[in-house]
Amino acid sequence: MIKAGLFTLVPILSFLHSAQACGDHHHAKRALPSVPLTPPTRPLEWGDFNVIHTTDTHGWLLGHQEPSFPEPNYSGDLGDLASFIEHMKKIADKKGVDLLLVDSGDLHDGAGLSDGFPPGDVDGHESDKFLLQLPYDVMTIGNHELYNYSVTYDMYKNFAPKLNGRYLTSNVDIEVDGKRVSVGSRWTKFKTAKNRTVVALGVLFNFNANDKGTFVQSVTDMIKESWFKDALKENPDVFLLTGHMPVQGQGSEWEAIRQEIRKSHPTTPVLIFGGHTHIRDCVQLDGRSMSLESGRYMDTIGWMSAKLDAKTSTKNITFTRRYLDNNRITYEYHTNTTEKSFDTTLGQNITTGMHAVAKAFDLDDSVGIAPHDFNYDLAPYPDAEDSLVRLFAREAMPYALTYNNTRASIPNFMIVNSELLRYDIFQGPFTKNDQLTTLPYVDAFAYIADVPAGAAQKVLTTINGARARRGLTARELEEALHIAGGVELIHRQWVRDMIVEGQPRKDNLTLGYVTTDSCPGVGDDTLHKQPDQIFTPPRYVSSKPPTVNDTAPIDLVFVDFPRIRREILQALKTIVGKDYTESVKSYTDVTSDKILGMYAKHAWQSQ
Ligand SMILES: *[C@@H]1O[C@H](CO)[C@@H](O)[C@H](O)[C@H]1NC(C)=O
Ligand SMILES: *[C@@H]1O[C@H](CO)[C@@H](O)[C@H](O)[C@H]1NC(C)=O
Ligand SMILES: *[C@@H]1O[C@H](CO)[C@@H](O)[C@H](O)[C@H]1NC(C)=O
Ligand SMILES: *[C@@H]1O[C@H](CO)[C@@H](O)[C@H](O)[C@H]1NC(C)=O
Ligand SMILES: *[C@@H]1O[C@H](CO)[C@@H](O)[C@H](O)[C@H]1NC(C)=O
Ligand SMILES: *[C@@H]1O[C@H](CO)[C@@H](O)[C@H](O)[C@H]1NC(C)=O
Ligand SMILES: *[C@@H]1O[C@H](CO)[C@@H](O)[C@H](O)[C@H]1NC(C)=O
Ligand SMILES: *[C@@H]1O[C@H](CO)[C@@H](O)[C@H](O)[C@H]1NC(C)=O
Ligand SMILES: *[C@@H]1O[C@H](CO)[C@@H](O)[C@H](O)[C@H]1NC(C)=O
Ligand SMILES: [Zn+2]
Ligand SMILES: [Zn+2]
């Protein structure tokens, strides 16, 4: 299949459940979720220099509006965040301290507000305008801004200019009129409200799946650039490094940048804001530096504070960090406001504007009513009724791919990779937005005719092989950094890792993230418990085996992208002793993104 299919997401979200949405299913607009939310455990600890961080919002600016847990934890929308920032700025002012707002990229590919655009538009063009209404001090580019040149060009032409030199793309270029230029700016220097000098960079990890006409320079090469050396000639109070790059582990290059800075600025505070792997994480690379990564999809708002001393001091700086659940309870708690006093004019205007776009994009158009939640890893595949993987592989895929297909009467065995499924399905209307959040990837399906049924099933076992229930290998992890669905694997592995390392479960807590990171103290603002058990479906899953004998010839159907096609052909060669390369044909015009919608229309009408 085409590279574009794997990399081009077309997701959407669930704003349908908001008051201004029309249709027959919604909660009162921005009312608090009907379940009581657990408030944060303790006030934020302010320093002299404080930063609020967003990353990997992927178009989820309407927040998580589904009533099933833990979605209400993340029910704040961008308007609520804007109100929060406005109150927090006032608090900062009263305290006489700085409060900055920073973003680490990936603004679309994930939800309908960005990706549900009508033909002719550009992904994220409308939703980005809402982000521009917030007082961001610094933003940077993510890999999702680089899969399609039109999107990168939109960032260059329409987005970056609105940030007046604060859209930082230190190592990312675009070719325009035959010239290669930074999409935004390489670096910037500015003064804060309290007159502190800040030198800021915006760095992307060594991403290699970018579109033609866009360029990513490696971090190793970037730190040799003359502009980088110029930036280090400055003598700021703070280095503020934002970047679309994990704060530690595979794919993280922050240490190289920090070391370079430390050569000329051994003690200047270095604050790092990362992203891309969608997790909550924190690490201190040295005693005068802290690095924070703040989740994904508007589930988490990051907080970092630093008590600054003389910048030549060699003592450790007192930093704090906190992962705030994005909801109004959190925001009201930390700003000492109430349901009545919380909303600001700007916040309300943003919410109203977003709902108007959701309406224009038909994001609430429902194709059926999901009878219950379908969960990716809280229910075991293939047996549990509420396993999302079972729903897709065993029910929806076989239905949709054989729909109006002349090969429908020939027995088949269908193989698909489970990480295509990006987000859970919740009970209630299954909308255009839900289709985009759950399975945005536009992948085609191919088949090989006359494969012995027994061999077809052995192919599945073979390609799953040893990796079935193990963690990701270093090579898979590296690959996962570059492909869109790959980050889902990393995030899910992180959730599982947290279960091993996390705090003991407390029955009076609600489900949600339980974070263990490399920084001192507890990071989560609201304490949650983890699910009792997490199930890991195999990497590759299938339709039900056909009820024919092992030698009967069947159609072996599979999602057709290069890695899977390669692995299947290799396995067949080993099992059957035959090269089927020339026998691969297109099975249907139905692409992966259409499957759940077709199934919902067929199976979910009557509930
Ligand atoms: C978080 O989700 C859990 C269920 O997973 C729910 O019980 C709880 O109320 C939510 N907490 C917040 C703060 O939204
Ligand atoms: C890139 O985006 C443009 C504008 O939305 C769209 O017309 C085009 O089809 C996209 N390209 C790919 C390969 O998806
Ligand atoms: C910041 O510095 C400028 C001069 O550099 C001065 O005019 C201004 O009053 C200072 N503001 C604060 C808040 O200290
Ligand atoms: C200073 O911070 C570093 C890095 O976090 C840590 O290893 C070291 O123990 C700290 N030193 C003191 C005196 O706290
Ligand atoms: C919170 O607000 C209330 C009412 O405006 C006020 O009485 C109270 O002192 C405030 N509390 C804090 C901690 O600021
Ligand atoms: C309200 O939002 C619209 C976009 O939805 C924007 O054009 C306008 O400037 C905003 N007005 C105010 C007062 O913030
Ligand atoms: C069925 O397939 C035929 C041939 O591909 C096509 O012309 C027809 O429109 C399809 N019908 C439906 C209902 O999709
Ligand atoms: C849960 O219970 C523990 C001890 O029983 C208590 O300390 C804690 O405050 C409770 N947490 C919540 C959110 O009720
Ligand atoms: C297996 O099924 C095929 C096709 O239905 C048939 O031709 C063949 O005789 C069957 N073999 C056995 C051993 O039943
Ligand atoms: Zn992302
Ligand atoms: Zn990313």
UniProtKB/TrEMBL annotation:
Residues 50-279 form the Calcineurin-like phosphoesterase domain. Residues 376-561 form the Putative 5'-nucleotidase C-terminal domain. Pfam families: Metallophos, NadN_nucleosid_C. One of its GO terms (molecular function) is hydrolase activity. Keywords: Signal. One of its GO terms (cellular component) is extracellular region. SUPFAM superfamilies: 5'-nucleotidase (syn. UDP-sugar hydrolase), C-terminal domain (SSF55816), Metallo-dependent phosphatases (SSF56300). Residues 1-21 form the signal peptide. GO terms for biological process: nucleotide catabolic process. This is Calcineurin-like phosphoesterase domain-containing protein. It comes from Cerrena zonata.
